[in-house]
What we know:
This protein has helices spanning 3-38, 47-69, 71-82, 94-130, 140-161, 163-175, 179-191. By secondary structure, the chain is mostly helical. Helix 2 (47-69) packs antiparallel against helix 7 and helix 4 packs antiparallel against helix 6. The protein is elongated. It starts with a helix and ends with a helix. The relative contact order is 0.16.
Amino acid sequence: MKRLDLVQLAFIIAGICSIFFSLDLVPTFLYYLFTWFTDGRAGGYLMDELIITILLLAVYLIFSIFCIRNSKQLAGWITDKANLHGEINLKLGTKDILFTFFTVLAVYGLIRDLPWLINDTYNYIKAFNTNAEEGFVPDNKSRGGLFIQFCSTGLFVVLMIYANVFAEFFAARIKKPETPVVVLKIAVGLVL
């Protein structure tokens, strides 16, 4: 593996990571959009969060498009400026590096989100059970928060289970010259 290929792979991984972060925002966006429609499209109390989520989605997608589309040029520029020409003495393939990346990302996400999900689910059930006699109806904010946390944790679980499949898929796409266009279409198709 040449150093140019390793730097290009780093840019493609940064683009994939940005796509993943945008996918992680989709449940939040859908919840805020649902709340906006249920409030009669009058703004609602979550309008500022909806706008921030839309802006974050746009920034993540633009960054991923830029990284994936221009990965070869950026890697070439960096290797020329830093004089990184030559071979690297690693026997790791692209698939191995991507598999490690996806697994580490999934473990990090589960460590970050799972305790909050368990805590909030327990508090929700506890509040529901203690107020059941009084006709307690949970508000949409607590339901929406749990929905977002379940979706986010589910995304990390799916990433953990299918890390090898995703690594094989992206490794096959990286070897082809139309990689940026294919990855971009997949990312835009998943987000939209």
